[in-house]
Amino acid sequence: MAKLLGSEIYNRIADKAVQIHGGLGYMKEFPVERYYRDARITKIYEGTSEIQKNIIAAQIHKEYLKKAPPVSI
């Protein structure tokens, strides 16, 4: 969950920084360009954000099933 949250926030901040700098945000002379590239890789390194969401959901579901009372019909 921490990896997902961290990468999502990092990407939002880097995206806003590029927007603030406009066209200069893509130029290698500015550190914003590096931050943006680094932020993008966090979404795909060690599993994409979508896969991370699936893993988290599966774990939460598994924990719920452990604690849920048995259903009798």
TrEMBL record:
The keyword 4Fe-4S does not apply. Residues 1-60 form the Acyl-CoA dehydrogenase/oxidase C-terminal domain. Keywords: Flavoprotein. It holds the Pfam family Acyl-CoA_dh_1. GO terms for molecular function: acyl-CoA dehydrogenase activity. The keyword Acyltransferase does not apply. This is Acyl-CoA dehydrogenase. It comes from Solibacillus silvestris (strain StLB046) (Bacillus silvestris).
